[in-house]
Fold each of these.
Amino acid sequence: MFLFLPVIAFGATTDPFLYLTWKAKSYAPDNFLGKILPGANSPILVSLEAFENDKVSDITGSQIKWYIDGELFSTIVGQKSFTIRTDKKPTSGVMSIRAEVVNKWKTIKMKTVDIPISPPLTILKSNYLSKTFSDNKISVSATPYFFGVTSLSDLVFYWKVNGVPVDSAENPQVVDINFNKDADPGSSITVESSVANPNGAQEVGYKREIFKYIP
């Protein structure tokens, strides 16, 4: 039996390729480990690098064309990065960014990246692991994501419990609810939270959860 192994050519050249990265600046809590998505009115830093023969290739003297959603945005020699801001009105969708390095190699090299745009989100969590509780008091917190602000203090929190507005002035992010111990098992509480950016056009994250009393 013959075993054919691939031949590895040390020092072999590789075709040049482009690599695009992006970083959005929108609000997310400090413990968020995922990729921060751009929301409304969020700046996005887009950066470009070129690689050839397993090394970074210098493109500072090359003409670089940038396209946003298929439309030419700029043509500048050596422009490896730029910042663009999303629309002020909250929306969801994708922003397509394409870079072209025109006069570095025999052929034009290009790379495209699609950036997801997120509407503002609000997540509700209680001091219990599930959506049930066994005590006569439950605390519910609202955590906002992907708003076009830099600080939690820039947002306003509104709460309703069983359809009735409640005040949470001491800690706007948390609402404490007292529950009747004599209530029937399986009774529920409906909690609604609306988080708004007063400086953003219609930038509101809404969430509704139902918590059940299981003594």
Amino acid sequence: MMNEKELSKAARIVPQTNFVLSEFMAMLVGEKPAIVTSFQNRGEDSFIKTNFPGLFMAIGNGSWYIKEPILAISRNKEFARQAADYLNVVSIEAQGRVLGYPNCCSKRHADFCRDGKALDSSFIVFETHRSSEKHNYLLNNLFNFYSRLGMDQGRFDDFIRYGKVNERILGFYAFHLEYISHIPCRYDCPKSVKIGKRIESILRKYAPVMENNIKYSLAKPVLFFNLFNLVVFDGYCEGDTLFYSKVAPPYFPSASTLVALLKEGNRIVVSDRRISIYNGNKKLFSYKKKSIRDGFIIDFK
């Protein structure tokens, strides 16, 4: 059962914390059995005890959790315990059930894990894109990095730089830019879209300004290269051409050189072999791709 006061309170104070608002609201309304976050001993538990005393918490134990303990939160004590222990669960599909992910998405991710591709962002995003007939902005998870950083210090450093740049621009932590917290099996996965619509409606009711900011960034065409090398556009696509008026947030420092070139143009043409930037009919720059995945457009709308 939804508690109006609790949801209003969460919408007001959660954005000031390390918790992701959409995830937290999804847990409060029962869309997710539990949520997990890294436990950094910075008052996360006391925040929950003070502001949401009806919720249960559990901390993960075991070899997986030595470097980064996990804090799980749920309305149900057993769900919190299971979620805290999810990394000790052998089956990826079982992990997904604990965290409320659609079975089809968990199975797809399990396939990636078995193939050694779990942290190959370029491969996963390209395969998800290629298997989709449409690209629903509700399933744009490109700005959700929690489960995609792995243990690579370079990726973590990129994440810190990305966060600092966009917090100044957006006025809130960039990790709030999501409706769903999982990697969808397709960008038009019906079960994921259903979750996304529910969370969108909850955010629109209780955090309309935040929801408007989230949708602004997610419902955009993206030129994707890799985890922290992508560009978001104010624009629209026609075939292999993207017409744009400007580059939009969030911004990625790794793409700054390309962004400088894009600011001189107003359309890009992306084929399997080449990326070309134009201003009107004048070609400003052309790049020969190393592979089909070395820069491709995803038209989220």
Amino acid sequence: MKAFIIPMLLLICGCSFKSDIVNYSGDGKIQDISFTFAKCIPVKGYEIKFTNFDLGTDFYKEYTLNNLPALHKERAIIYLVTGGNYNSILSNSEIEISITDKLDKQVFHFKSMLNKMIKMNVTHLYDSNLDNDFYPKKSAEPYKLKVKYKGKKSLEGKTGYLLIRCGGSI
């Protein structure tokens, strides 16, 4: 009987999370990055990719994050992803990202010059202070993600985008 119950619980948990992914109604494209570790432990996760923007021009955008999938105690990490290894990106370009809840209370804020950020896997940039994450409290809570980017003329035509990743790793 135990051999039947455990796989059924794993299946039910997996199905429940899939519906959370489908129920996301915010901006960006959400993708399920869940996997099974050691053939028996489900590891839930998702990524949300937002629209590309030109790194050579100033950019401001507000995105909505509605019905985020519920991953209790998992932090969501925010990345600026660039399409290549631009040495000139390590300059006076600046990015500011904030997240506010439904009461317009700021739950996350990050501001940095790109030359103070660390390259990760060539295309991902993140701040060395590791303060570029937030913990969504309630899945049904609506959030607003605001990004303000100060472009650099020498990067004109090169693109980047924001990516939120939550869970999906051990």
